Input
Amino acid sequence: MLYAGIDIGSQSTDVVIIDEEKKIKGYSVISTGAIHKNAAESALAIACSNANCNVDDIKYVVGTGYGRKNISIASSQVTEITCHAKGAFYLNNDTRMILDIGGQDSKVIKIDNLGNVVDFIMNEKCAAGTGRFLETMARILEVDLSEMGEKGIQSEKDVKLSSICTVFAESEVISKIAEGDKCEDIINGIHNTICDRAIGMIQRLSLEAVLTMTGGVAKNRGVVRNLSERLGISVFVPEEPQIVGALGAAVIAYEKSNRR
Output
């Protein structure tokens, strides 16, 4: 039997399929687009193809994320907080804190030694310090989003951005370009701005020794490096940080099905 988790976020829809041993058989990450139902069906079809299975082979599906109520195939829905905690703990059971920075929101989750959620903070009213913020800055700098992490690491000068608001930061970056600051230095300043926001949230819950970072921004090596250096700890990043919520949903699907 197979079990699936479908995570519909504002930017991407992610699916993970696991087997009876809770091993990942296949997954997919696609753009959410305007219609959540279509995104869920397309992502599931791709994940099934990667897992070499059919949708009918899946015994139980858990939906999570921003658009979880629009997943018609889901047997049940679970909050993204619970799913991210479950997925991060599954990947590293030493994890006690999760920082998830997605396309339009960010969250910090504190868990116990069994992976249960103890406390959390969400920032969902502003895109500052999220993937959308990075996309906007990349567009202004005319740099591919996937290259920003490496370019930021090459910085040799600390360029400080005073605003974390996407609109004001956009004007500030344009000013930095006009002043002749190097692209790499500006990008490093952008990364530190994201870290400022994340660290503020982390400190409100008190930093734990083992922090796992998930979400698309976790693929940015510059952000991860700066965050690790400023917190004074090693930040654990999964091989594919975007699917952690869907993975947690798949594990919950397995547990729910077997309890029944």
Summary: The chain has two domains: 1-92+243-260, 94-237. DSSP finds eight helices and ten strands in the chain. The CA atoms of residues 88 and 122 lie 17 Å apart.
